[in-house]
Specification:
Layout lengths: L1 H38 L3 H15 L3 E10 L2 E10 L8 E10 L6
Helix pairs in contact: 1-2
Length: 106
């Protein structure tokens, strides 16, 4: 029974690590989209900053941040690899956040 318990404990811990990585990517994607849409920060500056934050403060590897604007909506996609407990068990993470551009309409 002990090997099964150990396996389940590692599986639960691994799932929590991957979920945390996805949450971190989602938060950065949302914040980056808000900076571009509401604070008029240039997309290149915002994505460079987001990539630097993710590479420095998270466990995500091979981070890519892509921002696009179309029809009054800013879309930011963050993707990367979340490492696993055991070597070779990493998984890819990709999240997208869309925020409407804040503008005055007559």
């Amino acid at each position: 029974l002990t090997p099964m318990f150990v396996f389940l404990a590692f599986a639960a811990f691994q799932a929590a690590m991957w979920s945390h990585a996805k949450t971190e990517a989602r938060v950065v994607a949302r914040d980056t989209a808000a900076l571009i849409a509401r604070s008029a920060v240039p997309a290149g500056d915002a994505t460079t900053s987001a990539r630097a934050v993710l590479e420095a403060d998270t466990d995500l590897r091979n981070v890519q941040v892509v921002a696009s604007t179309s029809v009054g909506v800013v879309t930011v996609t963050v993707s990367g690899e979340a490492p696993g407990i055991i070597r070779g068990t990493s998984t890819s993470v990709a999240v997208t956040s869309a925020v409407p551009v804040e503008e005055l309409t007559p």
